[in-house]
Amino acid sequence: MKTQLQEYKHPKIKPVWCPGCGDYAVLNSVQKALASLEVKPYELAVVSGIGCSGRFSHYFNSYSLHGTHGRALPIATGLKTAREDLTVLVAGGDGDGLAIGGGHIAHAARKNIDLTYIIMDNSIYALTKGQSSPTSHPGAHTKTAPYGVYEDPLNPLAMFLSYDVSYIARTTSLKIKEMEKLLTDAIRHRGFSIVYVMSPCVTHKSLTYDDIKSHVPSLPDEYDPTDKFEAFKYAYKEEMYMGLFYKKEKPTLGQRLESIQNEVTGMSYNKGHTMTTSQIMEEYR
After folding, report:
1. Which CATH architecture has domain 5-250?
2. For the segment 241-269, what is each residue's pLDDT rounded down to a tens digit?
């Protein structure tokens, strides 16, 4: 039986983001993507970090964990390694994902862990009342930079490309259909996927809907997402191009571990008889 959209929604906990927050559109698009892929709620785990987007995991009728500052990715890595059968989603913002938790992206990419990381960027620490974030633009007035932000912002797309994340897409909460399509594709992809969503905050207006409307062209039709050098070129353009930037097929962590396990258990012990992992471990007791 086809899974209904309502089945993904927590029966008691309702979203409490500010009216007009872009994260509502992201949540709805994720649930639609899961429904189109026929992922059952009991086959899903959602891990989130700190900040407004940290609430994301609360709103699913599935396995979920609201972690501590910047640790959503390592938690999800352990979860996916232990439960390869689950579809694992990670949700975070530009603060949790690109500041205190930014160092974990490189290692999730090296492992090519099979999970999807949804980063909702509003260029501000919104939950804690408007401090600068790693993507706040120079000159923006925030609680921690009342005379204007004096640091250069990160370029997340270029950073993800340099780490060789195997699926990288950028979209916006304004483009619902495109966002749903990219999320569906990212969840289906075997490997570490990042869907980077420009999701404006309507309370602390560091990134506004007007900013996005005027600077979000789509990648050209002839664009090749397997060409990393072309992806870098578009990542550094002044306009915020939207779409699938990069996609690469390579073994996942689960596949690599399975290969090692098969090699070990296939070795001949005890006069030519193969042994299971449990039997091998018993020898070390």
Report:
1. 3-Layer(aba) Sandwich (3.40)
2. 999 999 999 999 999 988 887 777 776 55
